[in-house]
Design a protein that fits this description.
10 helices, 212 residues, single chain, 6-stranded parallel β-sheet, 6 strands, globular, Rossmann fold, Arc Repressor Mutant, subunit A, alpha/beta
């Protein structure tokens, strides 16, 4: 099995060293680069083309949602997984809306971090419990809630996506084909006016479409 390639972005050397050492204990994970600032991260990611970028939010510019957008613009195939100490709405929402596949806090147990990195690489949404709770209570619809109407099946699909299920797992759980799952997701994206799975989950929590 080819190891997943990771880049670690954090302005604290001790944190980077700790993450490199921790991730290095897993045979299927390899840290191919690290960066101490947003500018350095863009250079390192462009050079190494990792599968997953594990990044803090608050550091020398560009940072936060701006950095995430730029990273994905430079290497559209990567998954950006936020690992930070901050879980306020001013940090969480811009990161998710910018395209982060997941959002974890630095007190995440190491085994959960390993699972999250692997899940992110597979395109699964990963959210810390406090972040999911914040999204539940942060309902700021762009239009009246009554205008966002998902079918019962679309809600079932979206609920499984929020749990981190893949299209294949969702299809198996609901006894439908993967193609049907993809079709439901396209309809969900259109109704919620979002581009991807992570944004759909965030928007659904904000608009009260998912109860948690």
């Amino acid at each position: 099995m080819t190891p997943l390639r990771l880049v670690v972005v954090d302005d604290h050397p001790v944190v980077r060293d700790g993450l490199r050492g921790m991730l290095g204990t897993q045979p299927d994970l390899v840290v191919v680069g690290e960066a101490a600032s947003g500018t350095e991260a863009l250079t390192v990611v462009a050079a190494t083309r990792p599968d997953v970028v594990l990044t803090d939010l608050r550091m020398p510019e560009p940072s936060g949602g701006t950095l995430i957008r730029l990273l994905m613009d430079r290497v559209p195939t990567i998954r950006v997984l936020v690992l930070t100490t901050h879980d306020t709405d001013s940090d969480v929402l811009p990161a998710i809306e910018a395209g982060a596949i997941g959002y974890l806090l630095k007190d995440t147990p190491r085994e959960e971090l390993f699972r999250a990195v692997r899940a992110a690489a597979r395109g699964q949404t990963v959210l810390a419990p406090s972040v999911a709770a914040l999204l539940l209570t942060r309902i700021r619809p762009h239009r009246p809630l009554t205008e966002v109407r998902l079918s019962a099946r679309e809600r079932e699909v979206l609920a499984l996506v929020a749990e981190g299920k893949t299209n294949r797992e969702t299809a198996a759980r609901l006894y439908i084909s993967e193609a049907t799952v993809k079709t439901h997701l396209l309809h969900i994206y259109a109704k919620l006016e979002v581009p991807d799975r992570a944004s759909a989950v965030a928007a659904a929590y904000r608009r009260g479409v998912l109860d948690g």
